[in-house]
Each structure stands twice: as structure tokens, then as C-alpha cells.
Amino acid sequence: MKIEYTHQYSEIEGLQSEKTVTYLMETLNEGVKLTVTLMKGKIINKESCVCRSIDCQRGMNILKFLYENSVEINNWFDVLNNCDVEFNLV
User: Fold this and answer.
1) Of 8, 69, 65, nearest to 34 (Cα)?
2) pTM higher than 0.90
3) What is the 3-state secondary structure (H, E, C) of the chain?
4) What's the confidence (pLDDT) of residue 24?
């Protein structure tokens, strides 16, 4: 199973630059893979992890939380830690 949510932000002069943030969940044999990708102009920053301690439903809930709360790429591992999710970076 693969689920993806995408936020597109427009440029607001002096307040916000144009960017796209994508939240992706994929189910694997070894667990749930979560990926957050930030695209800002030509720069792409992507972080992924495999969570072996959660099932697909928990992964979908976390993915939806990340998306609905516009969690940035530099903060999403904190959310996993706060939810007591064990994960390995990939």
C-alpha cells in the first residue's frame, strides 16, 4: 500500500517562499516506510525511515497528522519520537 499527501505553498512576499512538501507512506515486508520530501525551487531535501514497531493503520494516522499539521522536514522525527515510534533511517 502507498499513500501520499502533498502541500503546495505559494510565495507570499516577505512571509513565505514557494515550496512543496510531500508526505509518503509505503508498506514493506519489514515495516512501514515514511518519507517527507521538501522541494524548494531546484533543491530537493528528502528524509525516510522504516518503522518496524507500527502497523499500517498507525502509519496512516501518523502520516495524516504530519500532513494536516504541516510538520516541516526538520521536525518530523520529533513527532515519531513523541509517539514512541521506533525507526531506522534509510
Assistant:
1) 65
2) yes
3) CEEEEEEEECCECCCECCEEEEEEEEEECCEEEEEEEEEECCEEEEEEEEECCCCHHHHHHHHHHHHHCCCCCCCHHHHHHHCCCCEEEC
4) 98
pLDDT tens sequence across 13-52: 999 999 999 999 999 999 999 999 999 999 999 999 999 9
List CB contacts of 1: < 8 A, sequence separation 6 or more: 25, 26, 27, 56
Buried/exposed 13-44: b ≥16 CB within 10 Å, e otherwise = eeeeeebebbbbbbeeeebbbbbbbbbeeeee
pLDDT of the residue at 13: 96
Q: Is 64 exposed, middle or buried (0-12, 13-18, 19+ CB in 10 A)?
A: middle
